[in-house]
Fold:
Amino acid sequence: MKEKGKSERKFCGNCGSHNAYNYPSQVFCTNRFLKNMDPVVDTLWYCEDWHLNPQGCHCIENAEKKKRAQISARTA
Amino acid sequence: MERKDLLEQPVKHIRVNGKLSVDELVQQFGNSGSFGAGRLSTACDIYEKMARDEKCTIFLALAGAVVPAGMRSLIADLIREGLINVVVSTGANMVHDSVETLGGHHYKGHWLMDDHVLYRHHVYRIYDVLVPEEDFIKLDLKLAGTYDEIADEYKGESLSSSMFAWELGKRLNDPNSILRAAYEAKTPVFLPAVRDSEFGYIYYLHASRRNFKNTLVLDAFKDVPEIIGICRRSPRNGMIVIGGGVPRNTIQSAALATKSGLDYAVVITMDRAETGGLSGSTLEETVSWGKVKSNASSVMVFADAMIVFPMMVASVIERLGKGFKRKKPTQLVKYP
Structure:
């Protein structure tokens, strides 16, 4: 089975509804905003309305980097 | 005219020493009287005249990204000092004003940056100024709520763009903000092309969330009697234009409607007349429409407004002196 490429991973940071918010950890979701739901979500989260539309951005990569840094700071 | 009349004023050469103030430099430009230096010096003379003429309403037209580039506080201060009485702006300049009010910033970049790299980092470029996308998004989120609030207050009654700007200014708490300064000084801010900016997209967010029912209603035509009324009631009218476009013509058309035309006009632009576009149209052409009086004090300065306008203001403030207080006009437009 073919492994999913980095740009296809199921994260809000890959979804067509995302915009930068608290970069890189959180994104703004237009879809959720229009449904009167909390529009600010984690870049590395996803929901049932997730649809792949990678913008070629660095959101996921940088959110993962930040998360790793936070974990290693906590464990150090 | 005799030949000797043509040769009355010799060009005096510009002298610069280490102690020149801005106005002294501008005076040196005036001594030369030539090219852009001569035009800038004339622009300062006209602005000084407008400022000293207490019966003149001074309009400022703003087009082009001067707020992101750093002219925000300067304009807010001029409003507070009564050296600008009416602002007519693109929506975008007031969007950028609001971005900073909410804690966002504009950053120094470069005109040769790789825009695809910027796109991948969610960073927008305005020539050599950068804005992070999140500052716009935070504005969207905040103002969509503000639109809800205004819509609920007005219950379907429409607002002119200046009423809309007034309502925003009322809610923005930042002394450096143009919209806030205008609200406090009761200075009208007209946004004739308001939908052509992030304000338009925010309307979409606000209205979609309400299924396009009970939404904020802006009526562009409501601006017309407001701005014509200001021109009509004012004994004299003057305009300073940064850029041109819709803001410039909004002021000129109001002056035309009064059948008296503008008494003073300073236009700072880098546009050219040959395209027939308004921004580069000469003030002589404007006279043919009756928008500017044929005997008006007027000049066009063909230069970057980011250089010229702060110099103009510095020079004129120096001339007016510390004790100068311009009488502010009574509230030009009454809002609820």
